[in-house]
Every structure is written in structure tokens, then in C-alpha cells.
């Protein structure tokens, strides 16, 4: 527990100030996230009470702030909405069941030490996924901001907005636009201010002064005062089956985003965190949220960043945030009665704009077009097909891209005889005889998915040489591992070449790879040499 391990007294003031600062950001954001999830606005605040305290007591990371999040809220709405309609009497119970399944998956991940799964989604694809969520939020909240009634998919809402532009409520649009512009301005120019809170307060006051409710502007209305109670949801086996896929997608998003944020601040501030231990904390937080009327809990990048900027150094920041929000729920919920719905929609819209990673996507496009295409595919699918399908596609695309690079890794001919383009090694002594020697470097481990490509490349290079090749020297410095298929390809290749009078040398093997080669009995058909220079001399 990072909270109780090595706590320093000088951290206390910074943690308390950071906790209050984070609460100021979390309150308006949480209300918006609850609306994304299709739940009453107070449930967003419930996500920052018991869940935050449980996480603080269990997690290893010192600074990660948890609570409701836009990406997971959208997944909750998609998954629970596929089982029961949002707003129906059993919707909240279905969301709670989804939360418990998510918590169980996170717990299994922690027990199995699957923290490495955070790396299954590449950064470009994650950027595309989050940008897709942002586009979905932007389009989804436009009707409410403009006073237009719309429902259905993102595309349905976009069509409804475009076709009803003549029925805009000018007051709603002005209030919402004011929130969006002020939030984006403050986040860019005055990033340390609680932009969402200030925008909500200012434009709620403006709405009251101009009598916005009498102008057709809808209001959030009464919010129940008091803390949530512990409630165990009812469910049936069929519901569990239908929600499990969504829960798995939510768990992957929680792991990927939370781990990335926790690692970045641990590196920045010079301490270490344990992703597998944090998974226990996230499992506990999601359990607490499900049992107290909340929804999926995730690590929050903006709140963690705000806490760090305000001086947070321990998980006391989560506990302080929870206490402040608890006080608001006990004594100040009456203020929400004066909160216009378009103002809240404007907060969500601005959050969506912040999720669209334009700069990061541009950097990806400049660096690797394939990864940019994968990111844009994830964006489009998330925005217009579904968040659940988008995250599954994101994982699949990341893995396919990895397999593609593994299947055809970077390789090069280091020394060759004939017209095969040579790249001479600097560490090979000048004057070393090279006649009839082909030196080939393979850029990764030799596995079943790339063994055929490796075999084809070596045979093609031997066939392409204009002068007879008498020896093939394989630079295996990058072959950190060789599976059974790889050893069999090496055996067949060496045997075939031996029949043609061509010797095969294997050099620069790691200790593990060399042990594999020796256990496979490859020493009978090829020669293992420690260093490349020695192999070239032996082949001369």
C-alpha cells in the first residue's frame, strides 16, 4: 500500500490541496460521465467515494486518481444498453452487474499477473480509440446542446442534428457554446484552474439571471442528497453471458489507460509502481462502485495531472477527493437544481474535444502510415459502429500489426559475394577473406510465424549470388529465442545446403538461444560459433 509505506509529513499539505483541487475537477466531469453512461447524474459522484478510498488503500501507485471516465462510461452505455434500455427500471441493476463482472475480470488479471496486457494496445491505436470516443461524445451531445431531441446511434444523432437545424433553441445553444469555449480556453491558457467547475458555475448563474428555464432550456433538476447505500444487484445467467464481452473490453481499457498514466507519473517523480498490484486496487474500486450505485472506475489522466500539479505525492489525494465529494452529496446537492442540461452537455462536449488526439495522430501519420491507418480505423469504428467493437478491433489491429512486423522483420545481408547488396560490418577486420561467403542477419527471434519467410530469404539470397556461395554465416544476435518450428527450418536448411557443398555457421547466439540449438541437436548439421568474426574466418 503506497499510502501507508514511507509516508512523509511534508507531503500532507500538498496531498490535501491536491485532493480539493481534484474534487473541483471531478464533480462537474463526473456529472457528465454519468449522463454518458445513461444514469442519474449523482451516480457519477458515487464513483468517486468508496471506490476511490478502496483504491487508495490497495494500489501501489502513489498518484493515480480514479473515478468515472468518458471511455469506460461510453462502454457501459453500449454494453448495458444492449441488454436493457437506458432509463428502464432495471438499467441501473444491469450496470451494477456489468461492474461486478468487470471487477472479477480485473481480479483474475491481477491473480494471473497479467499486467503486461496493458501493452497489447499500441499507442497509435489507443489514440485512435480515445479519439473515436471523443467524436462519439461530440456528436452525441450536440442535440442536447442545441435543444434538439435525438436518440439512437451516433450516426442517427448526427442526421437528426443536421435535419433539425431550423429548430435550435438559441438560449440552449448559447449556454452550451459558452461552456465549451470557456473550458477549452482555460485548459489551454490557464491549465491549473478547474475549468469545468468554473464554466458550470458561471453559466448556471447566467442561466438563472436570464430565466433560461422559461426560455425552454431543460434543467438537471433535483439530485438526491446523501451517501449511496450498499446494494447487491439481482441478475440471471443469461444477463451474465451477454455482459461478459463488454466487461472484458472495459477491463482492457481500464488496464491500458490506468497503467499508462500510473507509469508516466511514477517515471516523472522517481518512484516505482506495480501494475499487477494496481489491478487489485482497480478490482476493489469497481466492486465498490457496482455495490454503491456507480459504474466503471478508471484511472483519470486529467485528474492525476491536476493532482500532480497541485502537489500530490500519495494516495491521500484520492481519499481527500472522496471526502470533499461526500460533503457535497450530504449538504450541497440542492445547487444542481439550477444546473441547465445544455451546460452539462457542453462539459461533455469539451471533454470529447480533449479526447480527440489530433497532435498525436499527426505525429503517427508522419512516422508510420500503417499505424496511422490502424488508428483511424479504430476511430471510425468506435465513433460510428460501437465502443465495444472499437476496443476489440483496437486490440486485434495492434496484434496483427505486431505479427506483421514479426512475420517479415528487418533483415540485411552483411557481407555477400556477387550482386547481392552488401553491408560490411565495422567489426570485421579489413582484409578478411569474403569470397563465396554470405552473411545474413535476421532481425528478430525465429518462430513459427516467420520461419518460412526466413527460409525463403536465405535460399533466395544464395540463389541470387553471381558467384557460387560456399558458406552461409547466420548472424543470430537478434534471435533471442527460437521455437521448435525455427529449429526444424534451420535443420532442413543446413541439411539441404550441405548436400550442395555449402556449410552453415550460426554466430552471436544468446545463451538461451544457444541452449535451444544444442538441445535440438543442430550441432550435427551446422557449426555454432560464438562471434561473427570467428565464423567468417572459419568459413574462409
TrEMBL record:
Pfam families assigned to the protein according to its UniProt record, in alphabetical order: STAS, Sulfate_transp
InterPro entries tied to this protein: cNMP-bd_dom (IPR000595), SLC26A/SulP_dom (IPR011547), SLC26A/SulP_fam (IPR001902), STAS_dom (IPR002645), STAS_dom_sf (IPR036513)
Organism: Humibacillus xanthopallidus
Membrane-traversing stretches: 12-31, 37-57, 64-85, 91-112, 124-146, 166-186, 193-212, 243-266, 278-297, 317-336, 343-363, 375-400
Domain STAS positions: 435-539
CDD domains documented for this protein: STAS_SulP_like_sulfate_transporter
Domain Cyclic nucleotide-binding: 387-500
One of the GO BP terms on file: transmembrane transport
Signal peptide start-end: none
Locations listed in the record: Membrane
Cytoplasm recorded as keyword: no
Keywords: Membrane, Transmembrane, Transmembrane helix
Membrane topology: Multi-pass membrane protein
Database matches in PANTHER family: SULFATE TRANSPORTER
Listed name of the protein: High affinity sulfate transporter 1
Gene Ontology cellular component terms for the protein in this record: membrane
Amino acid at each position: 500500500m503506497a499510502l501507508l509505506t514511507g509516508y512523509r509529513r511534508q507531503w500532507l499539505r500538498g496531498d490535501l490541496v491536491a485532493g480539493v483541487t481534484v474534487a473541483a475537477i471531478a464533480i462537474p466531469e463526473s456529472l457528465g460521465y454519468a449522463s454518458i453512461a445513461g444514469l442519474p447524474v449523482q451516480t457519477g459522484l458515487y464513483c468517486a467515494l468508496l471506490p476511490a478510498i478502496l483504491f487508495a488503500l490497495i494500489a501501489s501507485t502513489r498518484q493515480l486518481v480514479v473515478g468515472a471516465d468518458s471511455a469506460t462510461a461510453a462502454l457501459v452505455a453500449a454494453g448495458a444498453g444492449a441488454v436493457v434500455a437506458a432509463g428502464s427500471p432495471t438499467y441501473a441493476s444491469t450496470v451494477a452487474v456489468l461492474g461486478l463482472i468487470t471487477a472479477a475480470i480485473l481480479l483474475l488479471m491481477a491473480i494471473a499477473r497479467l499486467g503486461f496486457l496493458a501493452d497489447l494496445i499500441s499507442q497509435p491505436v489507443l489514440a485512435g480509440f480515445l479519439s473515436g470516443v471523443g467524436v462519439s461524445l461530440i456528436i452525441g451531445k450536440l442535440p442536447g446542446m442545441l435543444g434538439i431531441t435525438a436518440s439512437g446511434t451516433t450516426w442517427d444523432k448526427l442526421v437528426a442534428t443536421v435535419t433539425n437545424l431550423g429548430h435550435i433553441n438559441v438560449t440552449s445553444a448559447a449556454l452550451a457554446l459558452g461552456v465549451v469555449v470557456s473550458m477549452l480556453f482555460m485548459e489551454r491558457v490557464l491549465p491549473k484552474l478547474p475549468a469545468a467547475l468554473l464554466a458550470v458555475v458561471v453559466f448556471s448563474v447566467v442561466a438563472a439571471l436570464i430565466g433560461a428555464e422559461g426560455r425552454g432550456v431543460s434543467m438537471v433538476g433535483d439530485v438526491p442528497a446523501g451517501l449511496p447505500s450498499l446494494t447487491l444487484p439481482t441478475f440471471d445467467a443469461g444477463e451474465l453471458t451477454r455482459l461478459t464481452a463488454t466487461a472484458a473490453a472495459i477491463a482492457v481499457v481500464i488496464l491500458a489507460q490506468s497503467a499508462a498514466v500510473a507509469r508516466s507519473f511514477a517515471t516523472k517523480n522517481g518512484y516505482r509502481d506495480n501494475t499487477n498490484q494496481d489491478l487489485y486496487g482497480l478490482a476493489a474500486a469497481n466492486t465498490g462502485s457496482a455495490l454503491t450505485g456507480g459504474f466503471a472506475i478508471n484511472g483519470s489522466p486529467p485528474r492525476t495531472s491536476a493532482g500532480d500539479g497541485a502537489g500530490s505525492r500519495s494516495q491521500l489525494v484520492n481519499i481527500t477527493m472522496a471526502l470533499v465529494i461526500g460533503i457535497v452529496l450530504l449538504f450541497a446537492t440542492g445547487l444542481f437544481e439550477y444546473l441547465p442540461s445544455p451546460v452539462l452537455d457542453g462539459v461533455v462536449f469539451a471533454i470529447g474535444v480533449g479526447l480527440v488526439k489530433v497532435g498525436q495522430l499527426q505525429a503517427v501519420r508522419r512516422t508510420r502510415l500503417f499505424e496511422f491507418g490502424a488508428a483511424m480505423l479504430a476511430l471510425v469504428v468506435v465513433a460510428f459502429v460501437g465502443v465495444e467493437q472499437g476496443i476489440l478491433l483496437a486490440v486485434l489491429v495492434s496484434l496483427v500489426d505486431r505479427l506483421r512486423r514479426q512475420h517479415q522483420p528487418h533483415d540485411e545481408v552483411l557481407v555477400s559475394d556477387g550482386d547481392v547488396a552488401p553491408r560490411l560490418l565495422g567489426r570485421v577486420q579489413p582484409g578478411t577473406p569474403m569470397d563465396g561467403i554470405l552473411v545474413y542477419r535476421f532481425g528478430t527471434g525465429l518462430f513459427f510465424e516467420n520461419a518460412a519467410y526466413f527460409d525463403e530469404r536465405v535460399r533466395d539470397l544464395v540463389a541470387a549470388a553471381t558467384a557460387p556461395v560456399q558458406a552461409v554465416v547466420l548472424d543470430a544476435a537478434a534471435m533471442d529465442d527460437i521455437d521448435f518450428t525455427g529449429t526444424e527450418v534451420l535443420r532442413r536448411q543446413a541439411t539441404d545446403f550441405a548436400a550442395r557443398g555449402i556449410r552453415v555457421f550460426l554466430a552471436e547466439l544468446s545463451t538461451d538461444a544457444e541452449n535451444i540449438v544444442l538441445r535440438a541437436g543442430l550441432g550435427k548439421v551446422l557449426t555454432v560459433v560464438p562471434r561473427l568474426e570467428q565464423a567468417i574466418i572459419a568459413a574462409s
